[in-house]
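Handoff note, outgoing to incoming analyst
You'll be picking up this chain. Sequence as last confirmed:
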Amino acid sequence: ITGVGADQPPMEVFSIDSMSGRMYVTRPMDREEHASYHLRAHAVDMNGNKVENPIDLYIYVIDMNDNRPEFINQVYNGSVDEGSKPGTYVMTVTANDADDSTTANGMVRYRIVTQTPQSPSQNMFTINSETGDIVTVAAGLDREKVQQYTVI
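Most recent structure output, in case you need it:
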């Protein structure tokens, strides 16, 4: 066999038993490093003479959920006017996942775990699970009573 993963970097990811034609993976694979490989298999006789034209082998590495989503920023700061109506936009948070975004492994979903303080309501904000948009849920934002909320 020839190609990336055989005789081209990364070298020797694949090997082939010259007698049976069985191909083997020689070490763990990581889709984030190489999502696919294109190899060519060559049929030769015991003297190394070509007996058939080479064939193409396409190997696709199936993603494993081995990466956690990571927020783009460590801290997000938003602001909203006091007395804002429910549904008022506050901010958008964004996270990325290195896993395959076309599978559930790489899809990012958002949720609010806690809000501090929990007054006047324990749910003053909500987050769109798909977009990361945070909006007000309850009325009662009063700067004189609560100047800042921490949402995790």
